[in-house]
Design goal:
Structural class: mainly beta
Strand order of the largest sheet: 1-31-30-29-28-27-26-25
Helix content: under 10%
Largest sheet: 8 strands, antiparallel
Oligomer: single chain
Number of strands: 47
Number of helices: 1
Strand content: over 45%
Radius of gyration: 27 Å
Shape: globular
Length: about 675
Amino acid sequence: MMPIHRFPSAAATVVLWTAIALAPPVLARKSALGLALDAAKPLSLLRFHQESTVFVPGKGAGAPDESVGGLGIALIYAQNNYWSSDLWSARGYRVAKGELRDPRGRNDSITAYQISPPSFSGDFRFVASGNDLFFRFPDASDHVVYSLRKSAEPGAHGIPFGNGRVVEEARIAAADIVPNGFTLVPGINLHQLEETRIFFHLPAGRELAADSKVAPGVSIARLASNRFARASRFSIDVSGHGVPIDTLASQPGPGNPYPGGQKIFCEPEDGGVVIVWKDALRRIIWLTRVGPDLRVRTVRMPLCLDELGAAARDPLGNWYYLTYTKGSDPKMMLVKTSPFGKPIRRRKLGASDRKFDVASLDASWNSARLHHAKGRLCLVLARVMHNGHQGSTITLFRSRNLRTVNPPAQNASHSFDSRVVHDGSDFLTMSLGDNYPRGVVTNKVRDGFHAGRVAFTYRTRHAETARDLGDGTVLPPLRWSNDNRTYTELGDIVPVGKGNAVLLSSERSVSNKNTTDAVNESRNLAYLLVSPKFDEIDQNQYVVPRRMILTKGRDSRRFAFYDYGGRRLSQQNRGVVWLTRYNHKNREHASRPKMVRWGNRLLILWEKWTRDQHVSTHGMIIEASGRGKSGDFDLGPLRLGQGQRFVVSGRRVFGVSANGRQLELTVIERL
């Protein structure tokens, strides 16, 4: 049976607020936001049309010895020479000249060059002289060099187009351009290309038409439309204030066990949205409002230590957020502000082992989640402790004065991801644990009370070496484990009246034999409806009680694992409804699952991935029972961040991400 923690009780009142907001008042006429959504045009595309292909050796000493139209490739000077020997140089690029064309005619054709990775990279796996890129520019004016990359490629921060992301690679000043000759493009090392990339250049000031401008600093594009929903994206220019953290760059594939926390926070407000985000380059937190009139207002929040860990809002519009310093001996601060960023209260949270026991919050496996309801704040904090171990705790605070109601109580160890919501009476949390417990643990938390149960569990890779416990006991091979992989991604937990809807992405097999890799089979969407009284049901080890799961799905067979201390623990999943049927581990996985309550049903979003590349993004509508699936529908180039959270206002679902240059507000409307 999972532990139950009890604390002295305290009274709590106020208004219920969950991620499922009430619909805004019905207006006599549509707002500017609504009109823009109705009139949104499909996202522009850039497609490469090949004209000719040439193999370029790239052996020129500092200047191209062979070119393809206006592009050249040459050796890089290294130490004291241009190393052209096959032992010390990269060489051999297949270059296709062609044009980038927008089939909808929203952009003029652009001369472009598609370059493949080098065919040879040195005999000793060491490249002294790599290869630089050169362009012949048409005139001596400022130019910008771009690349068109696959949308999931790490580092692709740029403007999203329908079939990739346009990334600014370099700016070339007019004074640096070689008249009638080739000009070096700094910072592009072609010998480091791992995938084919398309390069092109444009005069500075010429903008690509990705979206349609609908208001100052705001543009929109339609991402997808079908009989169930339509998805659009507003691009919001905040460059006059700061640089948002890129939430889509460098995101690894489904095998990554550390999804990281939420970076940008969004809530609906009076027909628009309000967004809290951290500047990527400075210790500044910004609050951006996008009103129903599409007017954008951005103000600076009062305090930022180094990082923004989590944020939440109350029904009055006041904001609460956790900010902290990086490095050892971190400082943590819980801050309360007015709806417009005026400071109201702040509280230092002790990091010592007698308080929150935080030695570090830097790594990607440390994260925080914060939620407000009924005059309380619930904080789930995953961190490295002073003893070197990683785990998470759950704490309740009074939102009025930020004082502690329930002190930090152990949640899961290790804990790599979490969620927190409110069901009208209690806070509900969901966390991904790898050993204590090994499973998805759901908690019910209120003043003086904390109870947890495992709702879903997964297989384990056992250690292949013996382990000496130091007390004369030696655990033999395959009789203990320290498997940090969970083969699972958290989706969301959503109260639905009849129970608590839980969405995951996981491997269906429960066999411990086939756990040789981070990805052993395709990941599929798993749905559960957990009893609202799960805390009152006894649990024997990690065997999920049948009456705890209300969905009429599939029960797994009984299985077991040996924990870090060598105990053999029984496991079994109950009532799982598998919503997808992917079955090729190298080509298809359900990843980044999201779920929100949409009217009387549930909207589910996910990305389809290969092992390491995004393929497409999908949606599905189901009943709370797990039945009545709509079938999945394509959501076009919509991308879902790993820590991203979606919120609901009436018939609209909002989600915010950023591409390193601007905020991207996704709006999905129920049709």
